[in-house]
Amino acid sequence: MNRAFNRKKDKSWMHTPEALAKLFIAYNAKFLGNTEVDQPKGTEVVRDAVRKLKFQRHIKKSAGQKIPKVELQISIYGVKILDPKSKEVQYNCQLHRISFCADDKTDKRIFTFICKDSESNKHLCYVFDSEKCAEEITLTIGQAFDLAYKKFLESGGKDVETRKQISSLQKRIQDLEVENSELKKQLQVLEEQMMIAQVPPGNGMSSKKPTDVFDMVPFSPVTPLIPLPASNGSAPLPPARPTEMRKDLFGAEPFDPFTCGAADFPPDIQSKLDEMQEGFKMGLTVEGAVFSLDPLECV
Question: How confident is the model at residue 163 (pLDDT cuts 50, 70, 90)?
Answer without folding.
Answer: low
